Amino acid sequence: MDAIFLQVLNGLDKGSAYALIALGLTLIFGTLGVVNFAHGALFMLGAFCAVVMRKILTLSKITLDPEKTNFLGKPLEIKTTYVELWWGDVGTWMIDYSVLLSIGFAIPVMALIGIIMERGLIKHFYHRPHADQILMTFGLAIVLQEIVKAFFGANPIPQSAPDAMGGAMDIGVLFGFAEYAVIYPYWRLIYFVFAAVVIGAVFAFLRFTTFGMVVRAGMADRETVGLLGIDIDRRFTIMFGIAAAVTGVAGVMYTPILPPNYHMGMDFLVLCFVVVVVGGMGSLPGAVLAGFMLGMLESFASMNEVKAIIPGIDQIIIYLVAMIVLLVRPRGLMGKAGMMED
Amino acid sequence: MSVFTPNRRGLIKSGALLGTGLAMPTIFTASSAAAYTNAPTGNGVTLGFNVPQSGPYADEGADELRAYKLAVEHLNGEGDGGMMNTFSSKALKGNGILGNKVNYVTGDTQTKSDAARASAKSMIEKDGAVMITGGSSSGVAIAVQGLCQEAGIIFMAGLTHSNDTTGKDKKANGFRHFFNGYMSAAALAPVLEEMYGNDRKAYHLTADYTWGWTQQESIAAATEAKGWETVNNVLTPLATQDFSSYVAPVLNSGADVLVLNHYGGNMINSLTSAVQFGLRDKVVNGKNFEIVVPLYSRLMAKGAGENVKGIFGSTNWHWSLTDAGSQAFVKSFGEKYGFPPSQAAHTVYCQTLLYADACERAGTFNPCGVGEALEGFDFDGLGNGPTHYRADDHQCFKDVLVVKGKENPTSDFDLLEVVQVTPRAQVEYAPDHPMFAGGALGECNPGA
């Protein structure tokens, strides 16, 4: 029972990441009708915002220690970060909490990247076939990841969670399990809560603000909204920026779970497209529902007991379920008629 | 008694015989030049460096390439000579190989067998490479080794740790300086027994490909021989990013040790997950839960950050070694690039020097001659102590380092500390050991 509970938590955790990325992907598809294969790269760029932030915070003053030597027998370089030199304990705190501080850095940066991407490149492909859009955005994703690799190398770069949020908690006790039966990392629980808050915020933004109302109207009938004198293109561009920012912060918060590397976006991209298709193209609730559902299924399929019955099921479960869902409901779980059916 | 009396007919006969005699070596040379693939025809010789320049091991590939370039410099008489000065064989003169200036071409393996074979093929067929070397994965090494055997080219393997490379997939044209899974296990198991006792239950997570399988088989056998029990072995796909689903079941498996038979990104991610799940803080069966990483690299340790502290593993070489060879290499590499070399850099540098030296001693680039010179070759001064290139399987035998993640690193590359230098005798095995059985070297292939 405790093993099942553990996999539920794992499923929620994986599902959080899938849902967040798929949400951004769906926002872009729903508003602009663009199949954005560069979306995984936005997740990766978000993660590297955390890397950049940490590098900035750990910029150091170098002094030479004549009493110690380095590997070449020369005086050892002692690094002291400027933030600690200037602000003492506050500087130490800033470095410790760099992942959380990175969110404030990533939101404007990612929104700007999203807007530049949309205005500079993607808008030229609005009236081109989906195949052209896929080729262009896939190429863009490769260019972005190679740029990141050129600057940061191919190896993963570790990012730690703040000390107070590191380690694991005995969550099982809260649910009546024996002591230490279900231990779960604090940061993964935080990621789940964070994902729930961001998803809720996006839905609230679209539901309860005038801007959101116009965007939803534009998603339903772009031409009519345009005829009302509303500059729907500008709003959609902003939505692209918001989607990029949502995906970016999902990447930032994921860095203590998975040390960022230049390829991480591609690893998530295919899964998230499956999530979007299963949820229903253009359906925001569908993307979230499918994200959590597939995360949960993937987690359970990787249990040793399940794999003992069906070897290799953990590798195919998502695609198997996607096939079944699309056979039974060709528009996905919550898809509507007219999406990608032209 | 006969007296030699010169006359016109005799002079013509003698001249003809002398001319034929003088021409003989040229005929043989020409014949031998055509008798093997890519025999150098001009004043230079081309080596093919096939390393991952893209993909997950690109950083390791970049370090290998740095070491290759350094080796070429040293072979051509440039720079400070590095380990050529400490190498026990004195056949290398710093004038290239057999008087031919050393040139090189590079290929990108992408850590994919098909891409690695394609780039090696291109270097052999288009660039005329007389030797191929490199790689950061056993799957790639085995694939390229097979290609070189078919093409009649010597393959000096880079970073490949699977038992199969010099086991069931060994080839007469292939040579490995790097150690293997069996040696890691043989070196590590006694240290693990000493540190953690002999009543342990181990849970293995294993990368699902040739290296992972043989590494797991080796470390399981070695630790079981010390009294440990293997509770479970779960194969994890190479493409796995988030290992939480694989780590979570360890918590309630009854195991008190987790063995991560992972390398590169897999190891970084699985170790990160294991530490996040609090395994290192757990007490199971009345003992502290421990994590073991049988194969370490400094570049990997950097990726895993603080999570490697105190974790035991093994490595082929480490820059902190104090022998003259290691120090010469670290100085040479460090002054050129600003940081110490990795074990990948060390092994490929050694392989390049060993190949060049074998050519010099054999007096030819012919793969069969070179192979013969490498087989059974004993040498020293290349950073691993007295080393033997065994003729039976083309595996190098040398000391193995047991290391652990350093508690208080002083720099970005000061991440591992050498716990023990395991003597060569402890990691040696018979050529027909069951873990290496199933293949044959076959005949040396000189190609054309």
General description of the model:
The complex is a heterodimer of chains A (342) and B (448). By secondary structure, chain A is mainly alpha-helical. Chain A has one domain (2-156, 187-328): ABC transporter involved in vitamin B12 uptake, BtuC. Chain A is 67% helix and 7% strand. Chain A is built from 14 helices and four strands. Chain A has helices at residues 2-32, 39-57, 82-87, 89-96, 98-120, 130-152, 186-208, 210-220, 222-227, 232-254, 264-279, 284-301, 304-309, 313-328, and strands at residues 60-69, 75-81, 168-170, 183-185. In chain A, the strands form two sheets. A two-stranded antiparallel sheet of chain A has the order 1-2. Chain A has a two-stranded antiparallel ribbon with strand order 3-4. In chain A, a hairpin with a 5-residue loop joins strand 1 and strand 2. The mean pLDDT of chain A is 89. With 448 residues, chain B is α/β, with parallel strands linked by helices. Chain B has two domains: 44-179 and 319-398, Response regulator (Rossmann fold); 182-315, 3-Layer(aba) Sandwich (Rossmann fold). In chain B, 38% of the residues lie in helices and 18% in strands. Chain B is built from 13 helices and 17 strands. In chain B, the strands form four sheets. Chain B has a seven-stranded mixed beta sheet with strand order 7-6-8-11-12-16-17, with helices on both faces. In chain B, strands 2-1-3-4-5 form a five-stranded parallel beta sheet, with helices on both faces. In chain B, helix 2 (58-75) runs parallel beside helix 11 (343-362). The termini of chain B are far apart. At the A-B interface, helix 1 and strand 4 of A face helix 2, helix 7, helix 8, helix 9 and helix 10 of B.
